[in-house]
Design brief:
Strand order of the largest sheet: 1-2
Helix content: 10-25%
Number of helices: 2
Shape: globular
Distance between the termini: 21 Å
Radius of gyration: 10 Å
Strand content: 15-25%
Structural class: alpha+beta
Largest sheet: 2 strands, antiparallel
Order of helices and strands: EEHH
Length: 50
């Protein structure tokens, strides 16, 4: 699994990573990127806006 924001890699799915569907594609964000952009995620803004 690869973070769509920073490119961090994980060998196996992490239960704390955030999953989003943007333009019909499932993307994942690592813990750090999720925390840094929590308000945008809760506001349902696409990651392009972050």
């Amino acid at each position: 699994m690869v973070c769509a924001r920073c490119g961090a890699r994980s060998e196996e799915p992490r239960p704390t990573w955030t999953c989003s569907v943007e333009n019909g594609v499932r993307v994942h964000f690592c813990d750090t990127c999720s925390r840094e952009n929590l308000r945008a995620i809760e506001g349902r803004l696409d990651s392009a806006w972050w």
